[in-house]
User: What shape does this take?
Amino acid sequence: MHVAQGRTSGEMPVGSASSVYYMAGAVLAAVAFVGLVFGANKLLSPRNPTAQKLEPYECGMDQQGDPHMAVRPRYATIAVIFVIFDAEAVLLFAVAPRLHGSPAALAAVAGFTVFLAFGLLYAWRKGALTWRW
Assistant: This one.
């Protein structure tokens, strides 16, 4: 069936409905698959909890103290700084091969690196990198 080029406003393109049905089917299939996997896990996995199985695992040693103690904010600060700078280092390694000797790209990467250096210097000056007990 051939459709004329001119459409009035309000009409959907011919392939739109099939695209919507395709996407709805794909989402439904994904949800059904996840439900199937969780259902199979519920039916097939053994359920016999004991006190020893419910304890948190600590490298084969007996548990020392409460497993639900609060994380110190100092540790969280250092962890966030590590994640930020680690991700930026990976980004720099990913971008470096694409420079191809372009002065503009080199200036952009150099500016980005200087910006990161200022961030590291700021964290250092604020004492975020010193570990206090």
Remarks:
- Residues 121 and 127 are 10 Å apart (CA to CA).
